[in-house]
User: Fold this.
Amino acid sequence: MHASILLSIFLIFLSPPASTYYGADTYYIGQLQYNKATFSKPDFDKILKQKSPQSIAELLNYLPKSFLKNVIAIFKSRSLQEASGKNPRILLFNEDASFVITLNGHPSQAGFEALEIMYFDFNDYKFKFYEMVFKNDLSERIKFDKNAIDRTNRTGVNPPACLGCHRMPEPRPNWGIYPTWPGVFAQSGEGIDRIIFDYKSDNYIINNEWIAFKEFVKNATQNSRYSKLKIDYKYWFDFMNSVEEKNSTVQKSVYTTSDAKDKLLLNPTNFTGHIAALNLLRLSKNIICSPSYKDNRDLLIPSHSKGFTYIAEKLNLTTAELKTEIKNINKIQEASDDLFYANIDQLSSGRTNIYSKSKFGKNEYVALLHIILSSKFNMSLSDYELSFEKGYLNFSTPFKVIEKLDSVLEHMEKTVSCP
Assistant:
């Protein structure tokens, strides 16, 4: 196809049908509370239809302030969209992270022409991925790379180019393990230190992340996209200058004061919690729709369980064998055998919730869940982890989310329709 023909197309947009369910104003799934997002995919689709934006910069003019405040900036990207300190990849998400868009900042960067979109479809409890290419942005991009006009394997919902990273059998977000997110500003989850200790030189050095972030806030107001985000760039640039003038040895740029937190919402922790909760709904729906659920429900819903010995017997294992499998899967190094087995043994005596963090440690619980799913449901928990490191069984989530699996199952089994 000639470039002139493709560029005459205002927008390449192969969007899936809008989900018909986005919840009540406030609703619960098990013990997980959700508030209806003030901006979601149907609202986004409505803007496209009514405004017909011809560039990503123009589109940002029409998005609500609440959405433009939920910013995560990525200076080292592992996606199709390139990123740098000066021109990071920007991730914007709504209140429950059920709708996410990403973009970068310069036409020399791969992916500049495309808005990458992820949304969670509450009809089938699956993550969906697709991209939109805007005419004006593609015109700018092909000045640097004429091959950008080729959208092979990148059209439609969950195209091959997306699945290459977001994986099969069901695509899911790629997100770092709590509480660290390499390549993301505020990647430690606490802030951006100006000075860090370098073990190679055995000395304190200026943090590259600090340098990159300062370059971003210094130039962002001149960028047609970043300038539309609800970030007080001047505040941060002045703040960082004042820190440098004081020559502070360790000074955080993001969470130093409550006022600073309001100035810039670089909050990967918040995003992680939301994504983890949605991923838990995906896992729960697939468990409920498994042919094995009815016969093995009592292994997952503690109020119906008869304790650790019963679980072992149902898995055709002795308690000693099951304890060993749990320990081998998780490879617990930091806990002594006595502490580990104490946690296990608590399952058999007086617990009100077999998976409560106070009764059963996080490591043991995740390992046991993995054994139950693989043994009785032909499912692997690794298909539900979000980390880049495949096969990691931490579920990429704060434990307070995954430990609610039992209550989520009890709720969803009454409402979920299985194919």
Notes: Residues 291-412 form one domain. The chain has a mean pLDDT of 76. The two ends are 40 Å apart (CA to CA). Residues 268-288 form the longest helix (21 residues).
